[in-house]
Amino acid sequence: MRLFLILAEELHFGRAAQRAFLTQPTLSQQIRALEDRLGVDLVQRSSRQIDLTEAGRALVPQARRLVTAMADLQAVADVHARRLHGCLRVGAIGGEAFMPYVIDILAELSARHPGVDVEIRSVNLVEQVHALPRGEIDAAFLRPPLPAGFRGLHLSTEPRVACLPADDPLVDRAPLTLADLSDHLVVDVPIPELRAWWDFWTVNPRPDGSPVRYGPVAGDMDALLSAVARGQAIAFLPAEARRDYSRRGVAYVDVIDLPHSTAALAWLPNSDNPLLTALLHAARSVLQRKTYGLDRPSNPEQPEEGSAPEADRHRTASSPTRSSADSVTTRGATGQMWTEKPPPL
Fold first, then answer.
1. Is 133 exposed, middle or buried (0-12, 13-18, 19+ CB in 10 A)?
2. pTM score, two decimals?
3. How many domains does the chain have?
4. Of 10, 31, 96, 304, which cross-links 16 as Cys (Cβ 3.0–4.6 Å)?
5. Residue 202: which of 218, 188, 215 has the closest Cα?
6. Which pLDDT value is given to residue 47?
7. 224-244: average pLDDT
8. CATH code for position 165
9. How far is CA 259 from each of CA 20, 318, 319, rounded to the nearest angstrom?
């Protein structure tokens, strides 16, 4: 039908064949085949000129509608062919799966790609280091500092609190300072890959230079909270733990000189997973519209990575970039500073 419409406009086999990028004999054969299928002559042929028959002229508007309908049908098919399908495995440490930014990002992903299923996998303190490199998950909502080699998108900033035994006399003296807690043992982590991360969370060394004294080892939140409830040690957690981890025997106390914490979406570089790319697009879209925790709307004049002064581009984990849509700047598990921008979206 498309070739017939071109011929009806040109009324010349040579020009019509040129428009259709065909040879003239091939175009003539295609038109003859259409006439045979329809059982009627569409073109009056002569050695000098051609013209449409009465049937051919009557067929032109119908042919146009058919070609348009086929184009629309193909456009819909193309959209569905590009639609993503599959399962995205997303890790979440602690109560991150229930945080507002995670809920909003995953809702945005589902709205954009209803064919993508999201499987949330809880990761403990140890698994946060290994699950991504082992390919067990595709991305993770974590609490920086991130392990070396991870890329991260900053999501939120919030205070931290001290987690004390409920019967500790200091609970009634809140708010506290880090100096008030200097005599307390702190829960430790089981693997060396977590040392730089845990040193940040336990503020080791303390502002006066004194080292933290570590006590019992815990590989997950239940073990950590159990050690605290039994009076063996204390810990430092995001302020959201007050809601996520309310437990008998445990009290959460404000510490005025305890640096803030951050949350991040983490993934490995050089991934060609289209589902991961879709998640990052969804996250960036949400963060351009909303901010979370202590963050403020991003400054449109903030310089891009690489153009900022060196001192501005190297911050400590306790002083993250405050724009929610910006990158995480933090200290990796090796103790090295790294700054990572999210990929272009």
1. exposed
2. 0.68
3. 3
4. 10
5. 188
6. 62
7. 96
8. 3.40.190.10
9. 69, 5, 8
Q: How many residues does the chain have?
A: 345
Whole-angstrom distance, CA of residue 308 vs CA of residue 300: 14
11, 34: one domain: yes
Q: In the predicted model, is pLDDT for residue 343 greater than 80?
A: no
pLDDT for the residue numbered 314? 29
| Sequence-separated (6 or more) residues with CB below 8 Å from residue 12 | 49, 50
Q: Find all residues with CB under 8 Å of 167, minimum gap 6, and list them.
A: 231, 249
pLDDT digits (tens, 9 = 90+) for 75-112: 766 666 567 889 999 999 999 999 999 999 999 999 99
Last residue of a domain, one of 220, 254, 288: 254
Tokens encoding 324: 């929610």
Alpha helices in the chain (DSSP H): 2-10, 13-19, 24-38, 54-82, 100-112, 127-130, 195-202, 221-229, 241-244, 274-289, 310-313
Q: Quick check: 301 pLDDT over 80?
A: no
**Tens digits of per-residue pLDDT, 150-167?**
999 999 999 999 999 999
**Same domain assignment for residues 205 and 59:** no
Domain encompassing residue 92 = 86-157+261-298+308-340
Residues 278 and 238 in one domain: no
The tokens describing 64, both together, are 């146009």
